[in-house]
Every structure is written in C-alpha cells, then in structure tokens.
Amino acid sequence: LVVMKKRKIHTSGFKTKVVIEAIQERETIQEIGKKYDIHPNQISTWKTRFLSGASSIFENGSGKDDTEKERDELFKKVGQLQMEVDFLKKVLGK
C-alpha cells in the first residue's frame, strides 16, 4: 500500500515572503526550508524565477503590463458606448 502525499499549493504572497527571506540571507536556505517545511531546492527555484522576473517591474513606465492597459482601454470604451446608448435612448424617447 503506497500512501501518496498531497502537494501543497502555495500562494504567490507566501512564495514572495519566502524568497525575500532567502534573498536577505539572515538564514540559510536550508533553515528557511525547515521553518516552512519546504524543500530547499524549491526555494532556490522560486528565488531564481523571482530574480529573473524582477527587471520586468521597471520596463513599463507606469508599472502596468499590456493586459492591464488593454483592460483599462476596454473599460473606457464600454463606458463611452454606454453613454452613447443612453443618449440615443433619450433622443428617441425610449
């Protein structure tokens, strides 16, 4: 009989907290791993991914990525179209 361990799902906030602790180097990765019951290799992987993506924070001047900009533009367009519909309803007397 083999008992399978369930994989833990960690939130991005939790991963960030662990990575920041690893970057600060107040404790070794092994100590942090024991503290949070996470394998040190996993912490190293998170740290590498975190550091490789860190520069993208500063690429867009406003800090918004393309998806957020597109969403904002679509909301603006929806608002504009809603105003036009309301105006036409008023003009046509509905």
From TrEMBL:
Q: Which GO terms describe its biological process?
A: DNA transposition
In alphabetical order, the GO MF annotations are: DNA binding; transposase activity
The record's listing under InterPro entries reads:
Homeodomain-like_sf, Transposase_8
Pfam families (alphabetical) = HTH_Tnp_1 (PF01527)
Q: What is this protein called?
A: Transposase
Q: What is the lineage of its organism?
A: unclassified sequences, metagenomes, ecological metagenomes
